[in-house]
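Database export, one record per block. Field names are fixed; values are copied verbatim from the stored entry.
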Amino acid sequence: MSSFFDDHFAIQRHVMPIVDPNARQVMKVCLTAAAMACLAISPAMGAAAPSTQSRAEAVKKVPMQDGKSIYENVCQGCHMAGGKGAVGAGMYPALANNPKLEVAGYPAAIVINGQKAMPPLGEYFDDRQIAEVLNYIRTHFGNRYTDKITAAEVKAMR
């Protein structure tokens, strides 16, 4: 699996600089979506996790800690800058001005368990990271939901 990520980031480093600047964001979205899809479906394709580790332990956890950096480095690949969403190879809902974010448990359940094209990401983020990114999204992009979800609430949802 590490070779897939090495290839993924090599493509970003070497191909993206020569691509038309307007197409870079689309390519980044496609590469990110492909990486997340491969993580989500690899067990179904017969990829076995090491016997002494769970799949989550075998894959490096996401290193970013604050909500903004998690959004910009992970979520923004599909949901776009400013949370405006995208339609193309898939439908990535807008997070900007989104009334579905009013109840913090709803986006938490989606991040943890996945939904439609979004793979479950709960095993890659700890409880605090999920709370951080949700609190960031719920207070940015035109959203004004200031009641914060806590790591303890995220933990209870797992």
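Remark 1: Residues 21-41 form the longest helix (21 residues).
Remark 2: Residues 2-157 form a domain with the Cytochrome Bc1 Complex; Chain D, domain 2 fold (CATH 1.10.760.10).
End of record.
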